[in-house]
Amino acid sequence: MAWDFETDPEFAEKLEWIDRFVTEKVEPLSYIGLHPADVKNPRYEKLIRPLQAEVKAQKLWACHLGPELGGQGYGQVKLGLMNEILGRTMFAPSVFGCQAPDTGNAEIIAHFGTEEQKKEYLGPLLNNEMVSGFSMSEPQGGSDPTLFITSAVADGDEWVINGEKWFTTNAKWSEFLIVMAVTDPDAPTYQRMSMFIVPTDTPGVEIVRNVGVYGSPRGSEGYVRYTNVRVPKDHLLGERGGAFIISQTRLGGGRVHHAMRTVGSCRRALDLMCRRAVSRKTRDGVIADKQAVQMQIADSYIELEQFRLFVLKTAWMIDKYKDYKKVRKDIAAIKSQMPKVYHDIAARALHVHGALGVSNEMPFAGQVIGAFVMGIADGPTEVHKVTVARQHLRAYRDVQDPDFPAYSLPQLKEAALELYGDPVEAVHEMADQEA
User: Fold this and answer.
1) Domain check: are 414 and 368 in the same one?
2) Which long-range contacts (CB under 8 A, 24 or more apart) does 113-121 make?
3) Which of 83, 201, 278, 409 is most buried per CB count within 10 Å?
């Protein structure tokens, strides 16, 4: 029987190194006015490249990739434990070669790209020499691909793309965009769309504006308009009509990584809440002595540990089955649970810090907004809950209970009496025998 909650000693040492490295060298990067996607900035070259070299020397670069792509081919459990640490600070994914959306885009090109596409884009992307964008969501359709209207029409040796995309992360820094567009409007719903590589400097690609999440100093979410954008026929990614399958391949593992990074953010908020609780004085002690504060800390710890174990179990299932479809319910479940756990812990940490907590001198307001982002990104929470329910109900599809089902208490009692007899009659029989 295998049932273990320990990390093997060799990998535990790596996690200790990652923890120390992130604390001492990576976390300070968040406060110097540089963005992780600004890879052409001279300061990025000066500050980030040496740290990436240290990570590579430790053989911890892009660990989600197989050895053939320069990674370690780690399973989801190891990746989850790593991302728990990386989730503490915005620069860590870039320093460790696993930053979104580049990792997902690299995965798409690695799995579905032609040799020419891999040669031109995959290497530079994996080496963090360029930035890409995933241009999927639309203003009128959000993240529901069945409502997308951006089109790609074949014209000779080219595709002509028209439409608008919303929240294309890092578009303003990108050198190319992966665009989902309708190529076959009359095909079955999930076979209507295809994916394309579109260089960002292609005529007709317009970044209308860069949208920021509320409270962020700069916008990094591109509102992109495509007007008669022409790309060669060989810029198609994968099969025509295969965009939905490609996007699901891209998102499955990413949602687990999102969840573990959220665990890291929650742990940071809880840590700061506890530090404040034991140091903030009142007229008769510190606020950690107050039951109201103790309840908030207890609730936060319990929710965090429950969520963490659920995420790690899901990661373990992915490693075990090697099939995202078999774990679809659990992936959807952790995705739907994630924003609530994050919000509640961050909000409590904010509250315990009082006026300081709501100020821009603390990270908590940003974390609360970040929790709402997690409830929208990669599909809204409600969609994932529907997936959980539908997947769970599949095991009950053949059930046809009558109005008074076999599990009603009277029927259960009747079945028990048939099995074991009437205890009252048994007592009378014993009494008669003794007499």
Assistant:
1) no
2) 113/197, 113/237, 113/238, 114/234, 116/234, 117/197, 117/234, 117/235, 117/237, 121/176, 121/197
3) 83
